[in-house]
TrEMBL record:
Keywords: Signal. InterPro entries: Poly_export (IPR049712), Poly_export_N (IPR003715). GO terms for molecular function: polysaccharide transmembrane transporter activity. It comes from the Bacteria. The keyword Signal applies. The lineage of its organism: Bacteria, Pseudomonadati, Planctomycetota, Planctomycetia, Planctomycetales. PANTHER family: POLYSACCHARIDE EXPORT PROTEIN GFCE-RELATED. This is Polysaccharide biosynthesis/export protein. Residues 73-156 form the Polysaccharide export protein N-terminal domain. It holds the Pfam family Poly_export.
């Protein structure tokens, strides 16, 4: 190899590196001139100027409610009501029928029967059992002994049995206790705690496992506590903070007759001339829109909301009758849908769940976001870097928090991450639905662009020159 060729070979990588450097400089300059978004950061209200309420914890003191408040005490005696199945035997009413003793009813697991004797009679909706010769006998609210005494008195009156004689034989037992049918819907978090944080680039996806079940609750167990216990237990503490109970019959559509909604026009007209009612309901013909006697949402008066967490000293906000369930009631347990915050800008798009029992500030929120991003292998080139990493590379120090106001507008809060490390006024607490945008300041954006395009351009130019000259 000649000296001239060696010189040419040595100068090749340098030339490529020099050209790459100039290209990087021109790229940075062009980005600044043409309006790169990094050169136009968002601004907001400085965090240190905000009231102390922005730093006041609201979640930390909450504690789980005493589960006994969701149930009811079992009374010392069982009182009869609609749905109970009684075993009744009285020779005065049935005769012996060739039997020396009353029929024996053996318990069957599928029927949930209790061992007893007598002919089965169910307590009807009127609270009475209908017996031969006696007709309806009102037993609602009576104990078993009280009901037996009433039947004995009615037999004496019906057959004119003198009071001086012994009581007629009456055997009375409960063959099957009544049950209350309720529907329980649960749309709760999965086993990983509501958010799947292993989705690269997303930062967390909801993981719900909706279920629905019709539950038969025994008498004196017809309450929210037993309904939850029968369908998986009390709500996950990572789930919703309240249980909703919709009362059966609390809301009814009106304006429809036995034959359906009455038509509001002639069926002979053209289709576009027909005024059809709302979606759903009857499928043919124009109809008058049914009306409701109340709000058709979970905010209506027919709905009871029972919180699962309370602040110290906070009253529960419901009474004993609210947890008692009646036939046809619906219980709904839902996952929290608003207890997340969102990210954008250099943090990348994503949603992250807020802790249940504690508040987190901006520094802790960034630690959660960047920690989860690193665990799924998201690189700095995709998400950017903050000054908190204390890296040798350029980092962003401006964090914008978009917070929704009651009127629907958004308040922009600007946090200086450099000051937040030492100034507690910068450490704003994160609220549900907050949107966190990490961005460069103008100087930081220039340095980051220089670092990315100039230095990396030189390295790529040199490596490319070496590759082609080999």
């Amino acid at each position: 190899m000649t000296a001239r060729s060696a010189l040419r070979t040595g100068r090749g990588p340098a030339r490529l590196a020099f050209a790459g450097a100039w290209a990087a400089v021109l790229t940075v300059a062009l980005a600044a001139i043409t309006g790169c978004q990094a050169m136009h950061p968002l601004d907001g209200v400085p965090a240190e100027r905000l009231a102390d309420s922005f730093r006041t914890p609201v979640r930390t003191p909450r504690r789980p409610i005493d589960p006994s408040l969701l149930g009811q005490p079992r009374p010392s005696v069982y009182r009869l009501d609609t749905g109970d199945v009684l075993g009744v035997f009285a020779p005065a009413l049935y005769g012996d029928g060739g039997l020396g003793s009353p029929p024996v009813v053996v318990a069957e697991t599928t029927l949930n029967l209790i061992p007893g004797q007598g002919f089965p009679h169910q307590v009807g909706r009127d609270g009475a059992v209908h017996l031969p010769f006696l007709g309806p006998v009102l037993v609602r609210g009576l104990t078993l002994e009280e009901a037996r005494g009433r039947i004995v008195d009615l037999i004496r009156t019906q057959f004119e049995i003198d009071r001086s004689k012994e009581d007629p034989i009456v055997l009375l037992s409960v063959l099957k206790e009544r049950t209350i049918s309720v529907v329980v819907f649960r749309n709760e978090t999965g086993p990983d705690g509501a958010v799947d944080n292993n989705v690269a680039g997303q930062g967390g996806e909801r993981f719900d496992s909706p279920t629905g079940e019709v539950v038969e609750l025994p008498a004196y167990q017809n309450d929210v506590l037993h309904a939850l216990a029968a369908t998986g237990g009390t709500p996950s503490l990572e789930g919703d903070v309240c249980v909703t109970v919709a009362r059966a019959g609390g809301l009814r559509l009106t304006g429809c007759g036995p034959g359906g909604c009455q038509p509001a026009g002639n069926f002979g007209g053209a289709a576009d001339e027909m005024a059809f009612g709302p979606i759903g309901g009857h499928s043919v013909g124009p109809a008058l829109a049914p009306t409701l006697a109340g709000a058709p949402t979970v905010d209506g008066p027919q709905v009871v909301k029972i919180p699962m967490q309370l602040l110290p000293g906070q009253p529960p906000g419901f009474c004993h009758s609210d947890v008692i369930l009646k036939d046809g009631d619906a219980v709904y347990v839902d996952s929290r849908t608003k207890d997340v915050f969102y990210t954008g800008g250099l943090l990348g798009p994503g949603s992250f769940r807020l802790p249940r029992d504690e508040d987190i500030d901006v520094l802790e929120a960034l630690a959660v976001v960047q920690g989860q991003r690193q665990s799924v292998g998201t690189t700095r080139a995709l998400t950017g870097n903050s000054v908190l990493s204390r890296d040798v590379t350029a980092g962003a120090s401006s964090l914008i928090i978009l917070r929704e106001r009651p009127d629907g507008t958004r308040l922009r809060i600007e946090v200086d991450l450099r000051d937040a490390v030492v100034d507690p006024r910068q450490r704003i607490l994160i609220r549900p639905q907050d949107y966190l945008i990490l961005q460069y300041r103008k100087g930081e954006a220039f340095v980051a662009g220089f670092e990315r395009f100039f230095i990396e351009g030189i390295v790529q130019g040199v490596s490319t020159g070496i590759f082609f000259n080999n």
